[in-house]
Amino acid sequence: MHISHNIQKKLNIKSLKYLDELLYQTSQENNFNNRLFALPNKYLLIMKIDFNEQKDYILKEFEDELPFDIIHIETMTINFSWTRLQPGFTSINHDRVVWLQERLMKMSITYRQSCLLLKKKFLSDKI
Description:
Blueprint: H1 5-10, H2 13-25, E1 31-32, E2 36-38, E3 43-47, H3 56-60, E4 68-72, H4 82-85, H5 94-107, H6 109-126
Antiparallel strand pairs: 1-2, 2-3, 3-4
């Protein structure tokens, strides 16, 4: 994929190489359809474009912006909003949500704690 000069100025080649290495190290279990990646360094990479995209009009959309979002997993809680990341990603299907929930429960103390707090609140409200 071609990355514009503006984006290259924001990132250094080392960081792109590092990202490539992280993607390479990511197990298949932590890859959801080449769209979501739970990276080994506790970041979630969300692709905005298919790796094999060939259509010029779609590729042009990413001339001046990155084709992915990266968010640290520890910043995600049970109240995490997908729309905060990417407005076009609001139609999250159930499989994707279950996949992400499983990864977050394994990888994030913050997420597990937010789930436990929500569960306690739910149980105390029922009493």
